[in-house]
Amino acid sequence: MPSRRPSNARRFKVHEQRFAKNAVLSYLRSVLWMCPLIGLATAVMGTISLFSSLFDRTGQSQHKVAVAWARMLQRICMIRVDVLGAEKLDPEQHYVFVSNHFSLVDTPVMFGSMPRPFRILARHGLWKVPFLGWHLNRAGHIPVQRESPREAVKGIAQAADKIAAGFSILIFPEGGRTRQPTMRRFKPGAAHIAIRAQCPIVPMALVGTRKILAPNSAHLHPGRVELRVGQPVGTAGLTSRDAAKLIRDVQQIIGDLSEPEVAGA
Q: What CATH number has the domain spanning 8-257?
C-alpha cells in the first residue's frame, strides 16, 4: 500500500510558504503598528519633556522622561534587554561611556537600560528633529558639528565640563551608525574627553540590535538584546598624546565584548 506521508519536497514547500506568510505579517505589524506607535510615543513624551523643562533646568526630569520614552519603545518593539556587567561600575564615579552603533534602536535601548544617568554627545543634526531635538536641547545634551574641527574641540570641552559638573557622558565614537557588519574605526573624541576630565572610559557592547532593525529597513523584529559593560579603563596621568592609543584599546575591548552574538536574537 503506498505511503501517504508527504514528500520532503512538499514539506519544504509548505514550510517555505508558511515562512513567507509570517514574514509578510511581521512586516505589516512593523509598518502599520510599531512605527506609528513609535512616532506617537515620541511626540507625546517629547512634549512632556519640553513642558517639564520649564520647571527643571537641571535636565534630571527630562532624563527621566527619556528613560520612560525608551522603555515604552522597547515594549512597542517587543525588545528584551539584558544588562551584563553593571556591577563593575562605581556608584560614586562619573564615566565616559563608549559603545558600538549598528542600529536605530541603539538609542532607545541605551536610554532605557543604562545603569547610570548620562548625557550624550551626538551630531548636531539631531537637534533639528521635532520633539527629539527639543528634548536634547532642554535636557543638556551636547551637539557636535563633526565637519568643523573647531566645533568638535568645543564639544569636547563642553563634555568635559559636564563631567566636572557631575554627569556621565555617552558617545558612539564611530561617528554615526555603521551599515557594515563590523565596527568602523573609532574617532578619538571620547578618549580626549575622558583624558581631559581625568575620568575612566567604559567600553560597552550592544549585541543583537542589528537583528532587531537592520540598516535602511523599517522592518522591526522582536527579539533579545544584550548591553555588555566592560571593565572601566583609567585615564589618570594620560595626556592628549595618549588619546589615539586609548581609543584603539577601547575599540579592541568592545570587539571582544561583542563575541559571541546573543543566542536566539
A: 3.40.1130
**Pick from 177, 141, 176, 146: nearest CA to 159:** 141
What whole-number percentage of the chain has pLDDT above 70? Answer: 91
HEC secondary structure over the chain:
CCCCCCCHHHHHHHHHHHHHHHHHHHHHHHHHHHHHHHHHHHHHHHHHHHHHCCCCCCCHHHHHHHHHHHHHHHHHCCEEEEEECHHHCCCCCCCEEEECCCCCCHHHHHHHHCCCCCEEEEEHHHHHCCCHHHHHHHHCCEEECCCCHHHHHHHHHHHHHHHHCCCCEEECCCCCCCCCCCCCCCCCHHHHHHHHHCCCEEEEEEECHHHHCCCCCCCCCCEEEEEEECCCECCCCCCHHHHHHHHHHHHHHHHHHCCCCCCCC
pLDDT digits (tens, 9 = 90+) for 60-98: 899 999 999 999 999 999 999 999 999 999 999 999 999
* pLDDT tier, 230 (very low <50, low <70, confident <90, very high otherwise): very high
Q: Which cell goes with 104? A: 536605530
